[in-house]
Amino acid sequence: MSNDKIERQIQEIEEKLKDLKLALRNRSSEQKPKKPQKAKHWYPEVGDWVRITNPAKGQAEEGIITKVNPKSGRATVKTTADKPIWRAWKNLVKQDPPK
Hints:
Blueprint: H1 3-30, E1 49-52, E2 62-69, E3 74-79, E4 84-88, E5 92-94
Antiparallel strand pairs: 1-2, 1-5, 2-3, 3-4
């Protein structure tokens, strides 16, 4: 192959690449805007006062964290009724302790 043929092939490939880049830009601008990201979940610590978002029937709705298991993503909450409840972190909301 001569140098002229190689140079023409390179130019053709560069033109195709430009077209593909333009098509990609147009496609990304047509996509729906991304939803805003939620705030990262807090990591509970022993002694945090929390509200339980999914208490079972007859269970208290708030208490103090007594144990935290980072491996399972769960915490034990000693409720106001002095009974322990084991819940996932996503079902606990940190709040100020009662006065």
